[in-house]
Design brief:
The protein is an alpha/beta fold. Helix content is about 35%, strand content about 20%. The strands form two sheets. An eight-stranded mixed beta sheet has the order 1-2-4-3-5-10-6-9, sandwiched between helices. Strands 7-8 form a two-stranded antiparallel sheet.
Length: about 325
């Protein structure tokens, strides 16, 4: 069933032009500071990890360095793992979870895995608590080398420049009530389409790659996170956000086809986390701990069951 929903930018049924885009931009005030919340924590970690500036964005005179941290003593005999957060800037526990992992748990994996971590992929959106970048583009639908989101293409270039195959990539996300109250209505308005309401799942879940499913890997992460926070149940149709639940707390997307961040390494083991910070059954601190637990469980599984340096199996 198709429903309509008023969004205060644009004319219903008509895609946005430059005037509407500027109107939308005017509605995006800076609500928090990347240079206060994120950059100092990255700089504090630079005495333990190699810090790199892998790109820069400049939107209407507001410039942001895109920062990553990597294992200082790279060992080509060890497996390589990528952790990303803040692809959607408003998903706070993705950013803070990546930083908390580096601060509190990454040392546990020293000499066992080469880590590369990009804690806040979309700084402009982080500051606006928004899903899109300055151009009203969702980076997480545009991870392709020729794509329009600089945040995405810069991360692709970082991965390519690493020069070694990744065995694992975990991308840290949230699903929030604002998805349904703001971002999906904005998407419909931007594209001149009718808004069709959906359901926000209450709890943590994972998104596997339908082109490269790794069910044991996903369940290892779910089992660890379930000790921290609750797992989202399927809805009455057996789905989470419109996708069939294939296992406890797991759905699948075609990552490369959709241009999602999880496709960029070609790693054998990939997953996207989704926590629900608006649930009455949890809070921000628990969501952060769930993200850290997910990263650690993913690494533990890969170290136990993966082979160093391998990417996706050829079969």
């Amino acid at each position: 069933m198709t429903h309509t929903s008023f969004y205060p930018v644009g004319t219903p049924g008509q895609p946005w032009g430059e005037a509407e885009l500027n109107q939308w931009r005017a509605r995006q005030p800076r609500l928090r500071r990347y240079d206060v919340d994120v950059v100092p924590r990255i700089e504090a970690l630079a005495n333990r990890f190699d810090r790199s500036v892998y790109g820069r964005t400049d939107y209407a005179g507001e410039a942001y360095e895109l920062l990553a941290l990597g294992s200082r003593d790279f060992d080509p005999a060890l497996p390589n793992a990528l952790v990303t957060g803040g692809v959607h800037g408003y998903e706070t526990s993705g950013v803070m979870g990546a930083l908390a992992f580096l601060e509190a748990r990454a040392a546990d994996y020293a000499g066992r895995v080469n880590l590369l971590v990009a804690p806040c992929v979309s700084p402009w959106a982080y500051e606006r608590i928004n899903r899109w970048n300055y151009d009203a583009i969702d980076p997480n639908r545009n991870f392709r080398p020729d794509g329009p989101a600089r945040e995405a293409t810069a991360l692709i270039e970082l991965v390519r420049g690493f020069g070694h195959p990744f065995l694992m990539h975990i991308d840290l996300h949230e699903t929030t009530d604002s998805d349904e109250g703001e971002f999906r209505p904005a998407l419909a308005a931007r594209d001149g389409k009718a808004f069709e309401p959906g359901l926000i799942p209450d709890g943590f879940y994972l998104v596997d790659d339908s082109a490269n499913p790794q069910p044991d890997f996903q369940q290892a992460v779910i089992a660890a996170v379930e000790r921290v926070t609750h797992i989202a149940p399927p809805d009455a149709a057996g789905e989470i956000i419109g996708s069939p639940v294939v296992a406890h707390g797991v759905i699948e997307y075609p990552l490369a086809e959709l241009g999602l961040c999880g496709c960029i390494t070609g790693a054998r083991f990939t997953t996207t986390t989704e926590v629900y910070p608006d649930s009455p059954r949890t809070d921000a601190e628990e969501c952060l701990r769930a993200q850290v637990a997910a990263v650690c469980a993913a690494l533990d599984h890969v170290l136990a069951h993966g082979s160093p340096g391998s990417s996706r199996p050829s079969e």
